[in-house]
Specification:
With 378 residues, the chain is of the alpha+beta class. The chain folds into two domains: 23-192, no CATH class; 265-378, Histidine kinase-like ATPase, C-terminal domain (Heat Shock Protein 90). The chain has helices at 15-19, 26-37, 43-51, 56-80, 86-111, 119-129, 132-152, 156-230, 232-257, 265-278, 294-315, 345-356; strands at residues 282-284, 319-325, 328-333, 360-365, 372-377. Residues 198-262 form the Signal transduction histidine kinase subgroup 3 dimerisation and phosphoacceptor domain.
Length: 378
């Protein structure tokens, strides 16, 4: 028997699972493409490094610094997407930014103000690696640095557009970060809502299964108690059915928790007839579910189960009638009626199921104001 943790009954890990290759998300595999595209703009300081009037070794140092800057930027861009822990990712991003800043400084000392364009990559790297508020502050800082460098070196008139590029990159990447954070909040909320909905589904299904099964078992146990002296054979047969019902209920609970439980209208019609008859209620229940639109049969099967359970438990009725239509179900009894009683959790579950399927539930008095009528229609 296999446990929930993928280990065999002898405690050994599944070899197939152990050999299963790690599946990486497409963003992790191809993030370097997005980073590599923008490296074309490093051609400007790189060309300047070759052209600047400096000794060969100095120019070689500048070229190496620019190439190292590009490699570190691309490495940081790819590696950052693999961090699930945002704090670890931010620390890694700071280390990358520190290395890039040092290399940009080395290149700037050689090529001068024409290296100001490298601040664009520092801005983008900080924007995608740091917490949002810090990223915004750093972006403003890099825009200011690029403007100061161009003013100090006297290149403002020629290269003022580099500051404009930094502003545009900052606005664009800042908007992407803001949108990404909103999307993350939305995804977390959606997962929480999905979890709540799943819990409600399990609770509703368990209630319906247990409520019906325990009601039938109670009815049969009372009948067996009455027959035990008068007709021991019949009492024994009822007890045998009780044992069978408990096994079925246990199997249904397991299937419900696993999300595999499916109610069938034909089975529920038969079960409704047997349950009502066993409780001493005259049952008028159709035998053929085919009159119902197949789209509605699953929901109506659950509704019928809960309705019959309530009739047996609370109505004190002598007769119960079930009517089916192509897009409707009606359960009518001649019992004590609602009498101002509060709606049970089972009926709330019925409303949730029917509302989710686009139908309407009507609950009120029966014919001539007596008993109870439960009607579901589309």
């Amino acid at each position: 028997m296999t446990s929930d943790h993928g280990e065999s009954g002898h405690g050994r890990a599944d070899p197939a699972a152990a050999r299963a290759p790690e599946v990486r998300a497409p963003w992790e595999r191809f993030a370097w493409v997005m980073g590599a595209v923008w490296l074309l703009f490093l051609a400007f300081p790189l060309v300047e490094a070759f052209r600047v009037d400096r000794p060969v070794l100095v120019r070689a140092l500048a070229v190496a610094a620019i190439l190292g800057f590009a490699a570190l930027y691309l490495y940081g861009f790819v590696r950052l997407s693999r961090y699930d822990d945002k704090r670890q990712g931010a620390r890694f991003g700071l280390a990358v930014l520190a290395g890039m800043s040092l290399l940009a400084l080395v290149a700037g000392l050689v090529v001068g103000g024409r290296a100001a364009g490298m601040t664009t990559f520092l801005l983008a790297s900080g924007m995608f690696s740091q917490p949002l508020r810090r990223a915004y502050l750093m972006a403003v800082g890099w825009v200011a640095v690029s403007a100061v460098v161009l003013l100090v070196t006297g290149l403002w008139a020629q290269l003022w557009f580099l500051v404009g590029i930094n502003v545009l990159v900052g606005l664009f990447t800042g908007f992407i970060r803001w949108l990404d954070q909103r999307q993350g909040d939305h995804e977390r909320l959606r997962r929480e809502l999905d979890l709540v909905a799943e819990r409600e589904r399990v609770a509703r299904d368990v209630h319906d299964v247990l409520g019906h099964s325990l009601t039938v078992i109670t009815v049969k146990a009372e009948l067996a108690e009455r027959l035990v002296d008068a007709d021991p054979g019949a009492a024994k047969a009822e007890i045998t059915q009780i044992r069978s019902l408990t096994r079925e209920a246990l199997a249904e609970i397991r299937a419900t928790v696993a999300g595999l439980r499916v109610a069938r209208l034909g089975d529920e019609l038969t079960a409704a007839r047997d349950t009502l008859t066993g409780a001493g209620i005259t049952a008028d229940v159709p035998a053929d579910p085919d009159v119902v639109d197949p789209r509605h049969r699953l929901v109506l099967a659950w509704v019928l189960r809960e309705a019959v359970t309530n009739v047996v438990r609370h109505s004190r009725a002598s007769t119960c009638t079930v009517r089916l239509g192509r897009a409707s179900l009606e359960v009518l009894d001649d019992g004590v009626g609602l009498d101002g009683a509060r709606e049970s959790s089972g009926l709330r579950g019925v409303r949730e199921r029917v509302d989710g399927a686009g139908g309407t539930v009507t609950l009120g008095p029966g014919d001539h104001g007596a008993g109870t009528r439960l009607e579901v229609t589309w």
